[in-house]
Q: What sequence folds into this?
């Protein structure tokens, strides 16, 4: 049972690591493709951010 947990934990960590390399790309694409959808890093729709401002 412990080995199964270790396998899942290792796979989870590998996926989180891979996600971290793609997150900035997803954020940039979201800014231009669908600025009103997809909120990252705790952003809320009510924060009033402009779609194309840096």
A:
């Amino acid at each position: 049972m412990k080995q199964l947990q270790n396998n899942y934990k290792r796979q989870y960590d590998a996926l989180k690591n891979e996600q971290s390399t793609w997150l900035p790309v997803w954020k940039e694409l979201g800014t231009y493709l669908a600025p009103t959808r997809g909120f990252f890093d705790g952003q809320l729709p009510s924060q009033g951010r402009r779609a194309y401002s840096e």
In short: Residues 32 and 52 are 7 Å apart (CA to CA).
